[in-house]
C-alpha cells in the first residue's frame, strides 16, 4: 500500500513593528575586533519584537493569513502542532501548549523543536510528514517565532557589538496536509553532533545563563569560530540540497526557487553559486529583515508566493544549516498554488 502524499499547503507570516534602519545600531557602535568581519555586515533594515510581545503573540498574528484563507476550523482541527521559539519566553518549556490554547487547537501531538535552529522549518516538515504518513492525522501546523533580535541583541551592552545589527525578528506558520496540492518531494536532514555546543553564550563577567550577574548574554564569536562556521555552512547547505536533488532526479541548476536561511550576504552568494542557481531565483529578505534565524525560510517562501515569484508546478528547494553547523536540512516542494 503506497503512502499518502503530504503537502506544504500554505504559509503565513508576521513581522513586528516598523522597520528599524541600520543607523539605529550605528549610533551605538563601539570598537569591536569583529566589526569588519563578513559575518556582521549590517542589513539596511530589520524588525524588533515589542517589549511586551510574546512568542505566542507573534505566532497568533502570523497564523491570521492561514485562518483568513482556509478558515479557523482548519487550524483548530489540526492533529499535529510543531513549534519553535528562538528565545523561549520561559526557560523550561516551549510555546506549544500556549499556542494550541491561543489558536483554539486540541491536537493529538504537540512538539516543541529546539535543535533545528535556522533549519527548523525543514526539520518540522520532516516530522510532520512522518507523522501524517504514519496515520497520526491529516493536518499539521508548524509555528516558528524568531524573537531574539529585539530581546537578546538589543540589550544595552550587546547593541554596541558588531553581532547585534544583523538579526531581525519575525514569525511564520505553515499548514501541512495529507493531499497532493503542493507535495513534499524529498527531505534530507543531517545531524553533525561533533559540532554541538560550539555556539556559546559569553557574558562578561563569565557566568552560566541561569546564574545571577551583571553580564548581558551574547553569542561567543571569535575569528577562529567564525572561520569554522563559514566553512561548515558553505559546505553543508549545498550538500543537503544536492542530496534532495539526486533523490528527486533534478539538477540543481533547474531549481525554480531556492529559499535558504540568511545569516549574511556571503552565505547567500556562496550557496547559490554552489548550486548554480541565479540570484533572481534565490529569494531572500536580508536587507529588509536581517537574519531571521528559523523564521527565514518560511518568511521568504511566503513573500515569493504572495508576489508571484513561484508559479504553480515549480519546484521550491528549501535549505539551511543551524547554530555552528550541528544540523542541516533541505526539502523540495512542488508548489501547487494556494488553491
TrEMBL record:
Residues 245-335 form the Beta-ketoacyl-[acyl-carrier-protein] synthase III C-terminal domain. GO terms for biological process: fatty acid biosynthetic process; secondary metabolite biosynthetic process. Keywords: Acyltransferase, Transferase. InterPro entries: ACP_syn_III_C, ACP_syn_III_N, Thiolase-like. Coiled coil: none annotated. Residues 115-193 form the Beta-ketoacyl-[acyl-carrier-protein] synthase III N-terminal domain. GO terms for molecular function: 3-oxoacyl-[acyl-carrier-protein] synthase activity. It comes from the Bacteria. CDD domains: init_cond_enzymes (cd00827). Pfam families: ACP_syn_III, ACP_syn_III_C. This is 3-oxoacyl-ACP synthase. It comes from Mycobacterium haemophilum.
Amino acid at each position: 500500500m503506497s503512502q499518502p502524499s503530504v503537502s506544504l499547503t500554505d504559509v503565513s507570516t508576521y513581522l513586528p513593528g516598523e522597520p528599524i534602519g541600520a543607523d539605529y545600531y550605528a549610533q551605538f557602535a563601539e570598537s569591536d575586533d569583529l566589526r569588519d568581519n563578513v559575518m556582521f555586515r549590517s542589513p539596511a533594515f530589520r524588525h524588533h519584537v515589542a517589549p511586551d510581545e510574546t512568542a505566542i503573540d507573534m505566532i497568533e498574528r502570523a497564523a491570521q493569513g492561514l485562518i483568513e484563507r482556509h478558515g479557523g476550523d482548519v487550524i483548530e482541527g489540526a492533529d499535529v502542532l510543531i513549534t519553535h521559539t528562538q528565545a523561549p519566553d520561559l526557560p523550561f518549556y516551549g510555546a506549544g501548549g500556549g499556542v494550541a490554547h491561543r489558536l483554539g487547537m486540541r491536537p493529538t501531538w504537540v512538539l516543541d523543536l529546539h535543535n533545528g535552529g535556522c533549519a527548523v522549518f525543514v526539520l518540522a516538515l520532516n516530522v510532520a510528514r512522518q507523522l501524517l504518513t504514519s496515520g497520526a492525522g491529516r493536518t499539521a501546523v508548524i509555528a516558528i517565532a524568531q524573537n531574539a533580535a529585539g530581546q537578546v541583541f538589543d540589550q544595552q551592552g550587546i547593541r554596541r557589538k558588531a553581532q547585534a545589527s544583523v538579526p531581525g525578528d519575525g514569525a511564520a506558520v505553515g499548514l501541512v496536509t495529507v493531499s497532493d496540492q503542493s507535495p513534499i518531494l524529498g527531505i534530507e536532514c543531517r545531524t553533525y553532533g561533533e559540532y554541538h555546543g560550539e555556539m556559546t553564550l559569553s557574558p562578561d563577567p563569565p557566568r552560566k545563563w541561569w546564574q545571577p550577574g551583571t553580564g548581558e548574554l551574547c553569542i561567543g564569536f571569535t575569528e577562529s569560530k567564525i572561520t569554522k562556521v563559514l566553512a561548515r555552512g558553505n559546505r553543508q547547505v549545498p550538500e543537503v540540497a544536492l542530496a534532495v536533488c539526486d533523490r528527486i532526479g533534478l539538477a540543481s541548476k533547474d531549481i525554480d526557487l531556492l529559499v535558504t536561511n540568511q545569516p549574511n550576504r556571503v552565505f547567500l552568494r556562496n550557496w547559490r553559486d554552489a548550486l548554480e542557481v541565479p540570484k533572481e531565483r534565490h529569494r531572500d529578505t536580508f536587507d529588509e529583515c536581517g537574519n531571521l534565524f528559523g523564521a527565514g525560510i518560511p518568511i521568504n517562501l511566503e513573500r515569493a508566493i504572495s508576489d508571484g515569484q513561484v508559479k504553480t508546478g515549480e519546484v521550491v528547494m528549501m535549505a539551511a544549516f543551524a547554530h555552528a553547523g550541528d544540523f542541516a536540512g533541505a526539502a523540495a516542494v512542488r508548489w501547487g498554488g494556494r488553491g
